[in-house]
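call fold(seq) -> tokens
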Amino acid sequence: MNGADRYRMTNKISYTVDTLVVGASLSGSVSAFILGKAGVSVALVDPQPFPRQKACGEGLSALGQSYLKQLGLWTEALDRASVPLFGYSIKRQDGSTVSLVSRSDAPQCFGVSRVSLDSHVLESARCQPSVSFVNDKVVSLEPWNGEWLCRTSNGTGIQARSVILGVGGKGFQFLSDEPASSHYADARFGLAFWCKGGWNNGRPSVVQIVHQPEGQYFITPISEDTVNISVLLQQSGRDIPAKGEMKRRGLELLRSAGFEVREVSDTRGAGEVHALRRVGHSSLYLVGDAIERFDPVGGMGMTHAVLSAALAAASVLEGRWDPGPALRKYYSARWRAARILRLLSELSYELNVAENWAVLKLVRCAPRFSLWVTSFLRKCVPSLPRVVLDARSLGERPFASESQLPSYSFSLAIQESRS
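ret:
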């Protein structure tokens, strides 16, 4: 009996798949969907119940929406459930307003419920015959003879040739890697809550950003009757207001914007949200927030989640027989793409948080040029790899599953954000 067989017996390794994807949020589900379309056997593991609400500004950039469209994941149902938004209205503490609104018919971003989006993408992944969803928590993950061995909290063992880790800021409970960079010196915290009601003078077509002494309040319509209010707080030695106080201020701002509130949800979040970059791992794929967290003021988090997931899936498909070069290619391609997304986020940070006078003056004096600059930068972001758009069958796969992976059945219909 060899070492792998002894490990298999000791740790109850019952299932073998091509790829293990840890985390079924946006980046993990996109990865699983692409690989499933190509016929790769995938175990998608997540302990959380779905659908789920999560703290997020719920503003998807037009670039991120175009990626989902190319992948076939942006459906008519999602289109109806989202709100096209054409720019930003920024109200500063001195009472002045800065507008960055496109004059074209092309939206700058989309307000979309993460309950709707994440549930739809997860269900699309689970509809692939070769993808199995395991509703359990990963408690150990370690390399073994060029493969990966995973154990979940109920004792289930999974053996995989490659691993994609897409569990956001919590992704490093299995790893010893240190952050490569905490991009901004001051800690920032974020929370969100949702309101149902109606607009007195018609739904606005922009994201409203209101500056307050404690931070920024983002008012984002995500459906005809639902608004996301996200609060980004600067610590900077100031006393952070209690959640209840921030909720009260947010409701006052929403009402002053012309929204009649009927229902209010509980708050979610209050965790750290400032930008953070981590070093790439030498033998597994880190995607989404696991590899880099963008400051949410820039609205590039979901776009990066989709793009990094697509790049990782492409590398898995191209590197089945020689994963080392494919992994290095992934981290190089993701870094090149992230530089542009990072620059877009930093411009928004300088405008809304640092209040850089030069950026502020440029936006005030030449708003159309400012929009052209951001549009040009978005065009510089790499397109999706051809291999993930083709999604052809890979034929005979390197592993044949020894038995059916457990699958947990539930309904994931497109729905509005719940209060």
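The two ends are 56 Å apart (CA to CA).
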